[in-house]
C-alpha cells in the first residue's frame, strides 16, 4: 500500500502527458491545414 500514491501520481502524469500530446498533434494538424500567407 506504500506505493499506491506513487502509482496514482504516475497514472495522472501519464494521462496528462497523453492529453498534451493529443492536443498538440491536433493543433499542429489544424495549423498544417491552414494555408500560410
TrEMBL record:
<keyword id="KW-0812">Transmembrane</keyword>
<keyword id="KW-1133">Transmembrane helix</keyword>
<feature type="transmembrane region" description="Helical">
    <location>
        <begin position="6"/>
        <end position="28"/>
    </location>
</feature>
<keyword id="KW-0472">Membrane</keyword>
<protein>
    <submittedName>
        <fullName>Uncharacterized protein</fullName>
    </submittedName>
</protein>
Amino acid at each position: 500500500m506504500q506505493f499506491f500514491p506513487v502509482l496514482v501520481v504516475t497514472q495522472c502524469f501519464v494521462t496528462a502527458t497523453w492529453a498534451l500530446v493529443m492536443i498538440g498533434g491536433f493543433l499542429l494538424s489544424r495549423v498544417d491545414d491552414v494555408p500560410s500567407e
